[in-house]
Write a structure and sequence with these properties.
Layout: E1 6-10, H1 15-25, E2 31-36, H2 39-50, E3 58-62, H3 68-78, E4 82-85, H4 92-97, H5 99-119, E5 124-130, H6 139-153, E6 160-166, E7 168-169, H7 176-185, E8 190-192, E9 198-199, E10 201-202, H8 204-214, E11 220-224, E12 230-231, H9 232-242, E13 253-255, E14 274-277, E15 283-287, H10 293-308, H11 312-322, H12 330-333
Parallel strand pairs: 1-2, 1-4, 2-3, 4-5, 5-6, 6-11, 7-10, 8-13
Antiparallel strand pairs: 9-12, 11-15, 14-15
Amino acid sequence: MNRGGSVLITGAGGCIGSALAERLAKSNARNLILLDHAEHELYEIELALSAIEVCAPHVAVLGDICDAALLADVFKEHRPGVIYHAAAFKHVPMMEANPLAAIRNNVIGTMTLAFAARNHEAGQVVMISTDKAVNPRSMMGVSKRIAELVLLRWNGIKTQMKAVRLGNVLGSRGSVAPLFRQQIERGGPVTVRHPDASRYFLTLREVVDLILATANLEGGVFVPEPSEPVKIVDLARGMILKAGFEPDVDMPIVFTNLLRGEKLSEEMVFASETVEPSGDTRIQRVRGTAIAAAEFDAKIARLLDSVGRRDLPALVDALVGMVPEYEPSELLLSAPKPLVRAATK
């Protein structure tokens, strides 16, 4: 946890980032740097920290992780030793509709942050990844997988790069639990996308514990100890019962359709990966194929070029070239080339 040192949290106003900030604020971190591009969320976490009786010093920085000049200033001024990288675009359907934004924020932002950390010899970067990065069917998932590869590519002795794949956070923004609660309060129906859809769920406390535990390990990719996925319809039924209603009697459950990029179930590891003990009983280390630096650099350059030209078909080709397991949605495969003409000099 780098007790006694400065800590940078990206996406500090989000669900996970703010929970990390509140936990670390009660430790003896020398300084907390709270970075977020959402003004209101950044204000809210700063307000929450001000209510803590004994709180670590902290500073709020309003800005974008893709802003290399801003990051350089932050690292020069505050010298963070640990970076918890929680900033990401996470909503699957939104990212399918805005693929260039997904790659810019989740991939280019992670690269910019990793380079800043290495250039200023920070001790470690810990990124919150997702089970959706495994055999991805969505732009959100493939963007997070490439972000993992970015960290593995530039992992080093001086600056250790780590990613921990987590499932859905119960009660977080965008999670099904708040939606179900709203639907129950309105009298139903409760909508579930598919009767067989399942997800891995974690409480926010469990998520923070796993992220902080990952900070104590050497660089690499990590997953929680295996758990059983939960059927979303079972979660819905449990919430209906807890509210005092009988599922399908007092409160109907309606099945809709999976949205673009959604999968019936998620996985924690690729078929080509293996897991092994990490030294912490809560977490397993993931081992995969070693990254060939020159080949990876050529592929990421191709990816960046397609984003710069706003050429979506070229972007999809580049993504499949980097993550062969990725299956793009029909929406992306049918996109015209290019979406917007590149700016001329």
